[in-house]
Amino acid sequence: MERMRFLGIDYGTKRVGIAISDERGAVAFPRAVLMNIPGLVEEIAALARAEGVETVVIGESRRADGVENALQCEIARFKRALEVVLSDVPVFLQHEGMSTQSARVVPETRRGALSRARRAPAAVARRSESVDARAAAVILQRFLDQQSSAA
Description:
Blueprint lengths: L4 E6 L4 E7 L6 E8 L4 H12 L1 E8 L9 H16 L5 E5 L3 H5 L22 H25 L1
Parallel strand pairs: 1-4, 4-5
Antiparallel strand pairs: 1-2, 2-3
Helix pairs in contact: 1-2
């Protein structure tokens, strides 16, 4: 069995959803929600290394007409920072349109439990936290599906 693990990211200004694929690189699972604070890039890099991730996929944020929005500028900076820290791991962008809305209808899984190391503040509802991780799984699954249909 070919092993190819992917990590998906739903970047937000406050919270960042993380998803990871199965070892075959076929199915995406919600993994964690991290706070967008200093050290985020290094924490994601450490997770990627620990999981043997070979490819990172970040949701690309654009307006409905396809034009980059303000968040996409931050995502581009974040992507460059990840590429520096994970120099041997390719980092791709994947259209994220409607991923959060789709994530709201995707059931939560045990694997999608929040990271014990950096949970979002208690004031934020656990349900809305898990939506960020599920949105990352939606983004990653789109990428995986495109890869398998291109093969």
